[in-house]
Amino acid sequence: MQVATYLKLSVAAALATIALKTGAWWLTDSVSLLSDALESLVNLAGAVFALAMVTVAAQPPDDDHPFGHHKAEYFSSGFEGVLIIAAALGIIAAAVHRWLNPQPLEALGLGLGLSVLSSLINGLLAWGMLRTARQHHSIALEADARHLFTDVWTSAGVVAGLLAVMATGWQWLDPLCAIGVALNILREGASLVSRSAHGLMDHALEPEHLQAVERVLQEAASRGPARFDHLATRRAGARRFADLHMHLPADWTLERAAGLRNEVEHALTTAVPGLRASIQLLPVGVETHYAHGEPAPGGQEVPR
To answer: Is 0.85 topped by the overall pTM?
Structure first.
């Protein structure tokens, strides 16, 4: 199933869980169930924005964006993280108010049943979304899936807290549980914002993909006169990029050199699906020059 399809399902699931959790809160007047319902509103806003950004990211390169629009997904996960943080602060405020003004809870059995049903919907959807996110390297879908998993654990904590209220009669457990839920949501929101910021700063390939690239280059170098250096990699959304130099004997024809380069590019894109490899051909013993003080690709400082 494609990324956009799962995000549409996420929107539908968010609407369903909002209805279920709002009903649970209305029946019980539990502030912890209210906090759970508020998080589902964040789920809805995040899923809608993620769907919009995935649509933008899927657009082909154009004159203004020659490398594509893949980084749009990072805006989605960052936006969802900010929404989560805002929801957590609102939940804490409501919980503190209820702590200072405790009220009896009603119809807890039915309310808890609705909460458990909504958690089952979110849990099954999040599991499928996370698998697809890893397959397509979609940070927007992964962020939405992790948020849904957070929602599942949140609901589990709420249910446990309300069961404790039913068993002990201690009404203060309800706002305490809501505060615990909010702190967990706050942690997840901060994590999403941090990951989005890192993604926008052009991180290198994931270790397993970088190792795959290095294996291909080592194998190619072991078979002939080719030498590779100045490897620089980055990732942007679902796309992966690698830039490097390939040094070959100066007496090789351009046709022969280009043929070997094509073989290496094919091997790289096979080893790392979605990789865009840019290989600069240079004669053995020749290095490119950069402006004074700027590091060469791969982090090597250019000598004076």
So the answer is: no
Q: 139 with 258, same domain?
A: no
Q: Are residues 152 and 33 in the same domain?
A: yes
Residue listed under structure tokens 């929101």? 189
Q: State residue 103's pLDDT score.
A: 67
Domain that holds residue 186: 3-200
Residue 105: the pLDDT is 65
131 and 234 housed in the same domain: no
Please work out, in degrees rounded to the nearest 5, the angle formed at the alpha carbon of residue 15 by the alpha carbons of 190 and 10: 60
Contact 185, 118 (CB under 8 A): no
What distances in angstroms separate CA 170 from CA 26, 90, 104, 123, 163, one per listed residue? 20, 23, 10, 30, 11
We report the CATH number of the domain holding residue 93 as 1.20.1510.10
Among 112-116, 212-216, 225-229, name the one with the lowest average pLDDT.
112-116
172 and 258 assigned to the same domain: no
Strand-pairing partners, residue 281, are: 246
In the predicted model, what is the mean pLDDT of residues 98-121? 75
Q: Which of 178, 200, 222 finishes a domain?
A: 200
- Cα–Cα dist 179/70, whole Å: 37
Strand order in the sheet with 227-236: 227-236, 239-248, 275-283
Q: From 48, 42, 47, select the one nearest 91 (Cα to Cα).
A: 42
What is the arithmetic mean of pLDDT over 126-132?
Answer: 81
Q: To the nearest 10°, the Cα dihedral for 220, 222, 223, 228?
A: 40
pLDDT recorded at residue 297: 47
Into how many domains does the chain fold? 2
CA nearest to 18, candidates 96, 110, 114: 114
